[in-house]
Amino acid sequence: MILEERVFGMTTKMDQAEAPLYIKVHESDNVAIIVNTKGLSEGTVFPSGLELVEFVPQGHKVALVDLQEHEAIIRYGEVIGHAVKPIPKGSWIKESLLTFPTPPPLDTLPLATRDRSSQKPLEGYTFEGFKNSDGSVGTKNILGITMSVQCVTGVLEHAVKRVKEELLPNYPNVEDVIALNHNYGCGVAIHAPGAAIPIRTIQNLATHPSFGGEIMVVGLGCEKLRPEQLVKDDDGSTITSLQDQEGFHAMVSSIMAMAEERLLRLNQRKRVTCPAADLVVGMQCGGSDAFSGVTANPAVGFAADLLVRAGATVFFSEVTEVRDAVHLLTPRVVNEEVGKKLVEEMRWYDDYLASGDADRSANPSPGNKKGGLSNVVEKALGSIVKSGTSPIVDVLSPGEKATKKGLIFAATPASDFVCGTLQLASGMNMHVFTTGRGTPYGLSMAPVIKVSTRTALKEQWHDLIDVNAGQIATGEATIEDVGWELFHLMLDVASGKKQTWAQKWKLHNDLSLFNPGPVT
Amino acid sequence: MILEERVFGMTTKMDQAEAPLYIKVHESDNVAIIVNTKGLSEGTVFPSGLELVEFVPQGHKVALVDLQEHEAIIRYGEVIGHAVKPIPKGSWIKESLLTFPTPPPLDTLPLATRDRSSQKPLEGYTFEGFKNSDGSVGTKNILGITMSVQCVTGVLEHAVKRVKEELLPNYPNVEDVIALNHNYGCGVAIHAPGAAIPIRTIQNLATHPSFGGEIMVVGLGCEKLRPEQLVKDDDGSTITSLQDQEGFHAMVSSIMAMAEERLLRLNQRKRVTCPAADLVVGMQCGGSDAFSGVTANPAVGFAADLLVRAGATVFFSEVTEVRDAVHLLTPRVVNEEVGKKLVEEMRWYDDYLASGDADRSANPSPGNKKGGLSNVVEKALGSIVKSGTSPIVDVLSPGEKATKKGLIFAATPASDFVCGTLQLASGMNMHVFTTGRGTPYGLSMAPVIKVSTRTALKEQWHDLIDVNAGQIATGEATIEDVGWELFHLMLDVASGKKQTWAQKWKLHNDLSLFNPGPVT
Ligand SMILES: [Ca+2]
Ligand SMILES: [Ca+2]
Ligand SMILES: [Ca+2]
Ligand SMILES: [Ca+2]
Ligand SMILES: [Ca+2]
To answer: Where are the domains of chain A?
Structure first.
């Protein structure tokens, strides 16, 4: 799909990095984006004959030909809108010059139509992980404490602090103790259709591979979400209810005792050599810009293909950033059933947005637009590139656990922390996050590798960005180079041999549940 | 409204505390609730002639007369349902024996019809508070750091930890430094009609009276919720955007520098004597039981009347627990305009629940039911008692700032932390929380006084419950006694002279925004 054309302009400077540069993604595109950090001024000339008739900022689009009123504006080989008036060649195509196209209709999509020449298996790649009895593999060794209701947060935080100070030092193989904070469990319409999502999310987070099968649940006692709905507790050792305790000190003691039992067992966990196939990698973008679809996301897509060839599981997500490009994805599903599930998730989200008097135009953000993305169509075309080229073997509803290997569409909102939380619930043990504007994203349950779309961001955020894909724009690196770099880094980070910047600074954003149902 | 009849049964024991006891609330009631902690067994006889024909648990209802099929079951002098079959006198009235009544229709409610004999002003009561230049008064002295988007959480947490360790000890008059964590700001439909609520909540939390007018906002840069929408920043000293910083260390340094500037000024704040009229008290219940409306809530209602007589502001809230008793409240509004606002909030919530395929029956919780509350009608009748008897001078939409003194209905969900967060946004500087089942509730921005509805809870949670209203059930204390105890305790806690248990253990639940709009 990506047929990049990188065109340097004339420059008096010898430094190629500062030479005027635009990138056209697909041969049929009639627009290109400007690469230079400070944009390019009126009068800039390219050997292709293009001359800018006005200033164009970095990442923003320039018209490669004279565009008539109503003419289709094409990027990634797809229509991203129509010209509201004639746009002369060399003009800056501002957001206001495009109409907003209707999304692909959902009832006529081609399902599973693409020929699948099977990709060559990629063998011999391994990492050092924590094998669990259920077959899953953790990249971390953590005690995770589940809560059935937010009411217990204050007590649990107090207890976790004491566990970390007083007990954790005795169990050096255990990396961390975390409370799975959320704001669900009571004061919500627990029987509303939307409630299934947050409930299964909490349930699936409790059994995350980083926790080594050691589950404990702290509940209150009177909450709507019954702890017994979340986990089995045959011998009564898995759940503690604060209302059964004789006051605050007893609550803290009970939590600490349950924690210590589990720390003892978790401390026995050792890293062993696992095939790359045991990775479950969640791909996501946030704070995107016009380079996302040209640099970072294609490199991530290349790495996704490597992972799939190695037998691993790869998630891509973010329904609102897939919706407008779904016609490019439905041909890639493995069969009609998976195709229908994909379409169903799109339809569900259309309805969900409509029920809140919103629509897909609520995405992108002001920062996305400043970064050159005119609308969600252009954003989606750049976003789905993260999925690479593999067949889509399954579709998960928000928070469902993955049961297959290969490329999976895990339906989630695009909201960064909601998406990350749901991918964790689906079993993700490694997260790759691409960003153009920059966001200091981090999770406690899985390592997060941050990939910048622009070199300027990597330079500015030298101690937050792990991989720079910006060099792809300037031609200093290829998509393949960065894709392989990322693949190797994933294995090293999964093994605990390298730390991401977010791990180094312990940047842990809160979990963020997706609750489409009402609060009461 | 409360015309309690407390009836002791025969006992061979000399200890009155263990004598069989039921409470009938209103003279027209045909049911009463059992007071004894372990319930009462079949054959228990009362001097009224009542004999239990089966075991009845604590807080649960007993039929005082033979009830015919379809006959109205009356508690608090109001119909809480109809008998689904004949119920003999002395039977346990289980939830399944009541039909669920339709709620009061909203278009025929009597507005502002009650005669208002003005209450005698209560003078001479004061507390030691922190006066702010805008006229508000804080009960705490805290640096509150606002975030425009959840993306900054990880960095901000790191910075706050360092501020508390390295800077706060130099400013002994400042009690705490807190990040106003939330999961809003991006990845949400920012132009959906529901978005107004979380946005004004964040805005009004930023200017909470505990923060002494010292505002600082940490933003990312590309988020949908613009920091400039939240606060004015004429001189550029109020907002920092992480995307403007040269990496992680620069971000932390910039936050720490902004924080220190403010700590310096906050450290100058001193407590001064303020009239009780400067209190803004939010009343709430959570983990309610059948005693809530007989013991704790009436005592809180009595204290609410004292506060109003002293010129203070009192909020009651929790729409789903007001809806079924709204016909008892609309007569009490001061004028038609306020009445219409009250009705409008009920209607908005009916629609909100319906849009998520839920209704008011989503409340109560399993614990409420175990505590004897059959349905939300019975719960509501006990819940609104917190409002006392004063006229309702104003109605606030969720998260709006109060501008009047007196009794105000601040519309919020009943969800404990959502309600508390919204009452804080409305300007609450003191929180009173009644509980029957027990919840270790706490907030960082205002003290929380916890009142138990039952003596057994106070005995069990000796180091969490501040006031025991359970003695009202057994006749060992009157509603007036506990109401005055609470009033005096509020003044002492507001002055920093006494600490609540939640303050002592630093039990701080997370803020919980109310976002009725979709995520994207
Ligand atoms: Ca994205
Ligand atoms: Ca995202
Ligand atoms: Ca937190
Ligand atoms: Ca309540
Ligand atoms: Ca409540």
So the answer is: 1-99, 142-266, 280-504
